[in-house]
Design a protein that fits this description.
two-stranded antiparallel sheet; 226 residues; alpha+beta; 6 helices; 7 strands
């Protein structure tokens, strides 16, 4: 049996969401923070890098000056509370911990959906494309990923006055929208197919049955598409 095009398209959309979700997670540009001494730094989920505000002047002063002032990125983990100017450390800690957890949940859910789709293509005895739960399980996992990303992103609705969202956050928003689209495509396909299958067969009586002067013809049946 050929794979339904809509299911395959939804899985491709979810795969793109998975890629964007991981790109957003491992790039150190979730928020751009300004510090109390005027310096700036770019903070991601798992890494933080300083941003030189005097890069042009350092370049003019020579390579030795640049090498001496340049600082490398730092790794972050659970419980990191690097706050910007006029930001609460507890709030920043909660935001990034929540986003890390939601990002991991979305990654696992999207990956599991891809694996279930591939297992269905292999036509294993315990899971096939004809299985009732095959498409529903994939849709549920994609919907879980979308919900997790929404919860994580909502925590960043309130940030400090000198902190700005950076491109990694917007990449994750795109990943969330793609996961939502993939789940919506599968749910629409499931409901549409179920409506067609539950519709009763339509019986059309031939007009010749109403006439007593013509021989009766067999009834014409319009069968359900399922």
């Amino acid at each position: 049996m050929a794979v339904q095009r809509l299911v395959a398209a939804a899985v491709v959309v979810a795969l793109l969401s998975l890629v964007l979700n991981n790109v957003a997670a491992f790039t150190p540009s979730w928020v751009l923070q300004a510090l109390d001494d005027g310096r700036k730094r770019s903070v991601g989920l798992w890494r933080m890098c300083p941003v030189s505000v005097e890069r042009g002047r350092d370049d003019l002063q020579g390579p030795s000056k640049v090498h001496g002032t340049q600082r490398q990125c730092e790794s972050l983990g659970w419980g990191s509370d690097y706050a910007g100017y006029q930001e609460s450390r507890s709030t920043v800690k909660l935001q990034f911990n929540m986003m890390r957890a939601c990002n991991l949940i979305a990654t696992v859910a999207l990956t599991a959906g891809q694996l279930i789709f591939l297992l269905g293509l292999m036509e294993l005895p315990f899971i096939t494309q004809e299985s009732q739960w095959w498409e529903e399980a994939i849709a549920a996992l994609f919907q879980l990923a979308s919900l997790a990303l929404v919860i994580g992103l909502v925590t960043f609705y309130r940030i400090g006055p000198y902190t700005h969202l950076s491109y990694s956050c917007y990449v994750n928003i795109a990943a969330c929208l793609l996961a939502t689209m993939a789940a919506a495509m599968l749910i629409w396909n499931i409901l549409h197919r179920r409506d067609d299958c539950l519709a009763p067969g339509v019986i059309i009586f031939s007009p010749s049955l109403a006439s007593p002067f013509h021989p009766r013809l067999e009834n014409d049946y319009v069968e359900s598409p399922c």
